[in-house]
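User: Before I run my own analysis I want an independent prediction to cross-check against. Here's the chain; please return only the structure tokens and, at the end, one sentence I can use as a sanity check.
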Amino acid sequence: MFNLLLVVVGGGLGAGIRYLTNMGALRLVGPNYPWGTMAINIIGSFAMGLFIATLARRSGSNELRLFVATGIFGGFTTFSAFSLDFATLWERGATLPAFGYALASVIGAIIALFLGLWLARSLP
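Assistant: Structure tokens:
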């Protein structure tokens, strides 16, 4: 139960930071392109890599990993978790599965979004 609380609190913080980052990007560059989302995905993935490598080097606690990686970065962007999963497969030497995972995740998510849009628009 404590681990769940760590993830929930971290996720709330990450989501709040994501919102503020998106609002800042809208004010800086306007709404014509999703600069905020792109920046969040790139920054979150960089931060995830930095954090995980540092945590592994220093034998960090599972609680810290849950709060920061799963919670804060997960709330900030799930793209960071996706990027970490890809990197884990890649570093294990599972090159084909890594690219299959990336391709299936991106294309599958986009198709699922369009299916969800279609379904919601089809209902009375």
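Sanity check: The radius of gyration is 17 Å.
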